[in-house]
Amino acid sequence: MTDRQYSLDEIRLRLNELDDQLLSLLSERRKLSIEVAKSKVETSKPVRDAVREQQLLVKLINSGKDKYQLDAQYITKLFHTIIEDSVLLQQAYLQNLANPQSIKPLARVAFLGSKGSYSHLATREYFSRRNTELVELNCDQFKEVTKTVESGHADYGVLPIENTSSGSINEVYDLLQHTTLYIVGEITQPIEHCLVATKDIRLEDLKVLYSHPQPHQQCSEFLGRLKGVQLETCASTADAMKKVQELKRDDVAAIGNSSSGKLYGLQTIQSNIANQTENHTRFIVVARKPVEVSTQIPAKTTLIMSTSQQAGSLVATLLVLQRFGINMTKLESRPIMGNPWEEMFYVDLEAHLDSDNMQQALSELTKLTKHLKVLGCYPSENIKPTQVRLS
Q1: 335-364: burial string, b at 16+ Cβ within 10 Å, e else
Q2: Cβ of 101: how many Cβ atoms within 10 Å?
Q3: CB-side neighbour CA atoms (13 Å) of 57
Q4: CATH number of 299-379, picked from 3.40.50.10330, 3.40.50.2300, 3.30.70.260, 3.30.2290.10
Q5: Where in the cell is it found (predicted)?
Q6: Residues annotated in the binding site, as ranges?
């Protein structure tokens, strides 16, 4: 039997056929994930089963190696994404059952910036799993986002809270201190900063660079190497790109997302300019009412508290969390306006608000603090990858 030489067009045609088959299989797998969620409603089993996930990955790795000559890293990376998607789909299904009043065909969502801003991209990603049509309300400031939701003109608001490179976004933490809103969700998005301009210009010809202050911080090392470039701030990265589009000058550029730049007719002139390669921003979703969180779902609880000025007061509160086995993922301090040298502490906890441990901890914390308020209990969408040992 002789080997036939296939043309490039024939190879591409076969690749297209295989891609269609993959899409069909992924769609079928997603539907089965929902069926799994339905069965877990009856059995009250948690969404995540670490033992089952580990067994599945080991089986797939061994099968991929023995039958298909696929390496373990490739299979692990691929199925981490598939498992994460399955978990999030099941969580969304269970949350809809727990909050039937929140199932709406239309949701009004406020976020910072215009079309293509990172907050806009996070908004679309978060609500894409909820089969909800969006009415997008772009705002010029973080405070405008919260005011729009508080006034009832929006159902939800999406706010960036922290970045792996530039750290906490203090303005948002300060807003949480005074708002009546509740945190009802979260999403972590990769931030891929690049320079975009109207044409392919040289960095040496760049005179003005537009962006939001956060990307300026997150790309400080790259910006420090640019000589004679004036940094101009805008309300969002999308507004910066819109500004460059309007100016139509050969010596200006913006920091933003490459795909968002295309929305404004801009092209990428320099990629990967952030200080850290793994650059992510965590966004929170706020609403006027809290949500009920299914006990089958990994949950987070966020609270704010102030302690007395006595030595060891904060340590005493942290020891309460330790005693009840509650993991703290974030501790942030911010000054209390009008009270010099006093601070409010923001705490993210990996715990369900209704769990016995959390309720007992809150009871003790109330006695130890001057002020304590729960900002929200919500599903954790930071899906930790299933761990398997690779030889």
Answers
A1: ebeeeeeeebbbbbbebbbebeebeebbeb
A2: 8
A3: 25
A4: 3.30.70.260
A5: Cytoplasm
A6: 12, 29, 40, 49, 53, 86, 90
Q: Cβ-count burial of 315 within 10 angstroms (0-12 exposed, 13-18 middle, 19+ buried)?
A: exposed
pLDDT in tens, 249-267: 989 999 988 888 988 999 9
The torsion of the CA quartet 138, 143, 144, 150, rounded to 10 degrees, works out to 110
CA atoms within 13 A on the CB side of 214: 29
* Predicted local confidence at residue 1, as pLDDT: 42
For residue 372, the 8-state DSSP code is: E
First to last CA, the chain: 38
- What sections of 99-169 are H helices per DSSP? 118-128, 142-150
Superfamily of domain 8-98: Chorismate mutase (1.20.59.10)
pLDDT tens for 145-193 read 999 999 999 999 999 999 888 888 999 999 998 899 999 999 999 888 9
Q: Which residues are annotated as a binding site for substrate?
A: 12, 29, 40, 49, 53, 86, 90
pTM: 0.81
Give per-residue pLDDT as tens, 372-384: 999 999 998 877 7
Contact call for residues 132 and 95 (beta carbons, < 8 A):
no
Q: Half-sphere exposure of residue 37, counting CA atoms within 13 Å on the CB side?
A: 22
The whole-chain average pLDDT of the chain stands at: 89
Angle between helices 72-98 and 50-68 (to 10 degrees): 150
Domain spans of the chain? Answer: 8-98, 100-191+280-287, 193-270, 299-379
